[in-house]
Amino acid sequence: MSDSQPGYRNQGRARTLMRLVGVIAMAAALTMIVLAVADFFSAFSSDEFGAQPTKFWLFLLALPFFLVGAFCLNAGFLGAGARYAAGEVAPTARTTMGYLGLGAEVATCPQCGADTGPDAKFCDDCGSPLSKTCPSCAADNEGDARFCAGCGVGLT
Description:
Low-confidence stretches: none
Number of strands: 4
Structural class: mainly alpha
Mean pLDDT: 83
Strand order of the largest sheet: 1-2
Order of helices and strands: HHHEEEE
Strand content: 5-15%
Radius of gyration: 30 Å
Distance between the termini: 53 Å
Largest sheet: 2 strands, antiparallel
């Protein structure tokens, strides 16, 4: 198998170029739309009878610039958007898979909420114990348990 990253050479440069072209095209489209709308409303506020807008065609010219800019910005920021979405979805998917009994088991620290290995006795982040031993029956309980699951004695 190859150790190379997916994509193609100079992908970072192409991404930067797409972002730059997208911003320039969107700025041009916005400028044309503002000029067209300003001309449209200035014709109505004119003291001349029958005054008509003369630059409203800029609005129609702005539409292709807007579409090109939107496409380029979408392509330029697609990876960042996908990484953001994966960062939001992956923890939820991992937790859901754990509930279903699929995938690697993880223990969650009751103190700080960090995930640790399934065999860990203490949290990797804060050092809190991940389980409580019942003083009465010596049963192991979850770290956030208030009462023993084996005998019902209160845990402190």
